[in-house]
Design brief:
six-stranded parallel β-sheet; 38% helix; Rossmann fold; alpha/beta; globular; single chain; 14 strands; 14% strand; pyruvate-formate lyase- activating enzyme; 2 domains
Length: 480
């Protein structure tokens, strides 16, 4: 029997700081919509999601909730702590739980002095931290509380050493409840996931630490009511015309991906457009896959290209070559698929010259859109452990951990130089002439995205100048 005090549940995803070329795309992460669907399946009918990128958080409504779950990335952790503190001050009897990737790897932080000392959040900021995948833990927590039990404040496990913390059968999960998101009518793209995990081992990536290197797949069967195809039927019935596949690596199993795309055609659920995250190494191997991607209306491939410097790729443990990157860019163009290239600046192997060469590389190969992201030592990653052990992290304001701020000492340049090269590189690839050239070629979407990025960078120039003035303008000390 459910008790009244858990009748109203609110889940919150705070807005991430920073803006980029796709900032206008209103696309929630799927964790909270999935939890909302699970809770409704468990009998909790009043579940509301606030995704701050889509609609403002109604604090009065949140403070009326019996239970509030807040999802964190590292850059949103300060906002999560302040929101949790506000709720506990406003309504002490409300139960607040914080989860997500940052809480998974820093589970003690909300209960210590850090939230107040660094982020101005008065204790308590939450009652519980939920680590790892929360789909089974959250209903269990609610039932325990309703039964008068007092669970430990830190729940769940995380990391590759704790596979029992993973939901191995993704088909047991319901379809995410996007309708619970306040402002969902503003969304133009339907997010969907067909797998979890990534078999690769990039040193800066928290995905493998959170979800593991063993990829788990959902059914793609035409008749299975739990399958990806069945969910796409629901998406089509709700008149969603565009889809984003949230998989960490959509083409990691090329034969399965081809079967999925073929089944989309057979089931008549091909959207007007779709996009996904892919790797260059898979794209260059299979023309049949590329043909199916084109036939099913793939318009953008988001690729973690990371660097045009072979030594940097090796240092990142990327397992891809510059030659494969070049081939992937050009072969995607053959199939009328735009490339969004994501590069990471700040590896120990990077120099000022190699970073400038990366901007040259982007221009030479006419990549549709790019982001030059700053290497960010996210808690839980080997990158974080290594830089922390070396005493090279000088900024632990988590709101700066958005890949747009330099928070550590680079090996071969100053922090200010790294920040400057990333910004000036972006300014070069989004200069007005490159925006106009896409327009002249008839690439309307590419032109629109480039013009948006051009104006965004122009608006950020003063803000970046102020930030860079406070960055160290000297190279790595001999004894940091």
């Amino acid at each position: 029997m459910l008790v009244a005090r858990m009748q109203k549940i609110v889940l919150v995803e705070p807005r991430a700081p920073g803006h980029h070329v796709y900032s206008r795309v209103r696309l929630p992460r799927l964790g909270l919509p999935l939890l909302a669907a699970i809770l409704k399946r468990e009998g909790y009918s009043n579940v509301t999601i606030y995704c701050e990128d889509i609609a403002p958080i109604d604090l009065e409504d949140v403070c009326r909730a019996d239970f509030v779950g807040i999802s964190t990335t590292t850059s949103t952790a300060p906002a999560a702590y302040r929101l949790g503190s506000l709720i506990k001050q406003c309504r002490p009897e409300a139960v607040v739980a914080i989860g997500g990737v940052h809480a998974t790897f820093m589970p003690d932080e909300p209960f210590g002095a850090t939230p107040f000392e660094r982020f101005g959040a008065l204790a308590p900021v939450c009652d519980f931290v939920v680590r790892g995948e929360a789909e089974s833990l959250l209903p269990w927590l609610l039932h325990q509380l309703e039964d008068g039990q007092k669970p430990e404040p830190i729940l769940g496990t995380a990391g590759l050493d704790h596979p029992e913390g993973h939901n191995h059968n993704l088909d047991d999960l319901p379809f995410p409840d996007l309708g619970s998101i306040v402002g969902c009518q503003r969304m133009r793209i339907a997010p969907i996931t067909t797998s979890r995990g990534c078999p690769f081992d990039c040193v800066f990536c928290s995905v493998i630490e959170m979800f593991g290197q063993k990829v788990r797949y959902r059914s793609i069967d035409l008749q299975d009511p739990r399958s990806v195809i069945s969910e796409m039927r629901v998406i089509k019935a709700k008149n969603w015309h565009s889809v984003f596949f949230y998989d960490d690596n959509f083409c990691v199993n090329t034969e399965r991906t081809k079967q999925l795309l073929e089944n989309m055609i057979r089931a008549d659920v091909v959207p007007r457009t779709w996009s996904a995250q892919v790797r260059a190494t898979e794209i260059v191997r299979d023309r049949e896959l590329l043909g199916l991607m084109q036939r099913t209306h793939c318009v953008i491939a988001y690729m973690g290209l990371e660097s045009a410097n072979p030594q940097t790729l090796q240092g990142f443990n990327k397992h891809q070559s510059v030659e494969q990157i070049v081939e992937a860019i050009h072969v995607l163009r053959e199939y009328d698929i735009r490339t969004h290239g994501m590069f990471v600046f700040g590896a120990d192997e990077d120099t000022v010259d190699s970073l400038r060469a990366t901007a040259d590389f982007v221009i030479k190969h006419d990549i549709s859109t790019v982001q030059f992201l700053l290497l960010t030592p996210l808690p839980g990653t080997r990158c974080f452990q290594q830089l922390r052990d070396q005493g090279r992290i000088f900024d632990t304001d988590w709101s700066h951990y958005d890949a747009h701020h330099t928070v550590f000492w680079p090996r071969q340049m100053s922090p200010a130089q790294l920040q400057r090269e990333a910004f000036e590189g972006m300014a070069r690839v989004y200069r007005y002439s490159r925006c106009a050239s896409a327009l002249r070629q008839g690439n309307w979407m590419t032109a629109a995205l480039r013009f948006f990025a051009h104006h965004l960078l122009a608006g950020q120039s003063r803000q970046m100048a102020d930030y860079m003035r406070n960055l160290p303008n000297r190279t790595l000390p001999a004894t940091p």
